[in-house]
Design a protein that fits this description.
alpha/beta, seven-stranded mixed sheet, EC 1.4.4.2, Aspartate Aminotransferase, domain 1, 940 residues, Aspartate Aminotransferase, domain 2, 27 helices, pyridoxal phosphate
Amino acid sequence: MLDALGVADTDAPVEQLMRQAVPASIYTEATADSTIPRAASETEALAELRALASRNTVNRPMIGLGYYGTITPQVIQRNVLENPSWYTAYTPYQPEISQGRLEALINFQTMVAELTGLTTANASMLDESTAVVEGMLLARRAAKTASNVFAVDADALPQTKALLAARADAVGIELVTVDFAAGEELPAELFGVFVQYPGASGRVWDPSAVIDAAHVAGGLAVVAADLLALTLIASPGSLGADVAVGTTQRFGVPMGFGGPHAGYMAVRAGLERQLPGRLVGVSVDADGKPAYRLSLQTREQHIRREKATSNICTAQVLLAVMASMYAVYHGPDGLRSIAAETAAKAALLRDWLADTGAEIVHDAFFDTVQVRVPGRAAEFAEQAHHGYGILLHVADADTIGISVDETTTVSELHQVAMVFGGKQERAFGFFGTGSQGALPESLLRQDEYLTHPVFHAHRSETAMMRYLKSLADRDYALDRGMIPLGSCTMKLNAATEMAAITWPEFAGIHPFAPASDVAGYLDLITQLEGWLAEVTGYDAVSLQPNAGSQGELAGLLAIRGYHHANGDAHRTVCLIPSSAHGTNAASAVLAGMKVVVVATDELGNVDLDDLRAKIAQHADDLAALMITYPSTHGVYEHDVVEITAAVHEAGGQVYVDGANLNALLGYARFGDLGGDVSHLNLHKTFAIPHGGGGPGVGPVAAKSHLAPFLPSHPLAQRAEHAGGFVFEGGPVSAAPYGSAGVLPISWAYVRMMGADGLREATAAAVLSANYIAARLGEHFPVLYTGENGRVAHECILDLRPLKEATGITVDDVAKRLIDYGFHAPTMSFPVAGTLMVEPTESEDLGEIERFIEAMIMIKAEADATASGRWPADDNPLVHAPHTAVSLISGEWTHAYTREEAAYPVHALVAGKYWPPVRRIDQAYGDRNLVCACPPIEAFA
């Protein structure tokens, strides 16, 4: 590889290559001075993780507040969560090779829509609290009023209230807290109301009158509902809600100290095109057969940029798959049985507590009993914790909340009762699951749900195992081969890194457990924060953001808070290069900033003249510059230090987008480039798997002057950053440490790499990208390179000349790569008609050569079409991909042979991947929006 790049004969050839690629002004020499320990072996890393895990105490959480104990069926844990066919897949942008996870997601959407009683659900949200925020923003867009007032339930979850406050202020929304259940009046004018159902206190009541009042005022009603409760009580849709949001965590997804979990959002008819995030729909393929794909693609943020209605560009796919399969496995009867038993246990606890003379606050509830004990709440909680290992929720000095779930035993209910002075001995008998517990008769659910055959057909473990296997076989993930998606860094998620996430000491921890129970987690988080701060050149790190987009937002909110604290609230202009990731502009708008686009030059770099002009034009109002480094075009910009200095001189802050850190780690640091704040992608550079489109973790790192404005949380176990609990920016996620359950993956990655290994990985990634650019450059022009002709960790192949010469499009090449056994590179981003290729450091030379061979042969096929060997409308490229059925059914009438279609290279004969559907009609799916499970007859 080095020989092909002309550096093999030099001293230290890898370093020579990196010096050619990375500008001298930012190049950092290797150093032995690092706080990151020497690289550990797999065995050593696991032993250290065991030691950290042992410092966590897995007590029985009865805290509730949106997080519950749940039983993950082993068939789902082993065949989804621990299966690389599911966790190493990427977002289904190539739907022909993503049909398995798309079917799982349409199961998820159907499950959510039917349980909430609404028309359409999306393919998951980041968590419940951020989903509530998105519901608020949707309500403002869709409401028939100019009001900026949003009424919030006094009985909402505390983390949701905090998140709403943080997000509403930046976009000019006024929040008004109302005790709906107590009959308090709504504000005279509003654009929406938010109802928690059941309430954080456990209370169940009928909110239909509040919903009606909101509609009369021209507003929309957003209801956060517990899906398990909805198997027993009336759905939000039946009560008149416009939007339902929540979490699916208790559907078989471990608490994991706060995540990752799949939030959800569903809307009534007419609001489908307002949905944020991703939406899976049904279309047809080239044979007219049903096929799944992502619908309404124009909502993607890289297209809409500053006009985007949300900055969310991801989902929680792996967790949504788990939750949907929990419903598939249990079916409606099983879910109803689990819910009824939970309600019965809560009612039994109420009875036992009432026997002690305790005051029960609410008569109607599902799974949470609230008890009033004047002045003694903390005392009783302490007794439960230390006496029985049970965690209760101290709502205030006088009130305790006790939540039960499917894992709660009657013995534990007895122990809780004894804390309050109940009997020491009881005879426990069997109680059935037909009980409605303490739910009011008037709110009991009457309609059916989950009627589709998929929720009835897989009751045995055998059937479920085979269903999951059949879905995985329809997909292409990293366990099959390279996924060379530029800007996505699809690298190895090593088995040792993944091992700890299912250990009970990490998976079974409630996010609001007391600090004494989570010492191991806090140590792991502190170490990881320190390592990330060192390698990025920053002073403080928050691991709370549970997606890259949320990390962007957190960084911009920190900049906003800093300017406000300095009396510079007028600084609202955010400069963003035209080549930037689309989420940059969307995040800036949601942080209350005005986007001003800066031009890029013919090399893909920031146009310095235009930048200076924009800085001069907006000097008094300049808040920030957002810049991606290396650039979105895959090039190290030589003038980056000059760029950041110009912004600082004008009083602005510099946000360096960390999406491309895999090209920089160990060779330069964002903080040394002039960066004030950055987000990182743990699901890219630091080896957390993409999970088919989520989970993600997007930590935000900052210099010391911005540290007080990084995310914090009202329920955090410790004071965070310089600001302590007096947080300026507020939380950006529901849990204090975001998706903490997957942080052991990145901890293990850094621990086993060491500082030297991280640097070597960067060099290997850059070497691979430059090798591909050199080998393919004579067949496809490489669009952007640096001053020495080098690219960073990815290269952009320009297919526009190919289309002009042969008529073959970038889509044709992408689909033909499927026939060769490959996932296509990133299509038409950041430049239309191109492919952006990122091999990462994880691919060996054999796989890289296989890709190069495929691309060269596809170029030859295009040239053969142009020369007249095949007609322009009948060649292997325009009909790609080819399914097995399309090759064997009926008479073969194409101008090319079956062998040319299916086996363009001989190596495919031994292990061919067959796509399950032919090319999908994208436009048909948008014109005919169907986002729930189609009937079985559709596949006949």
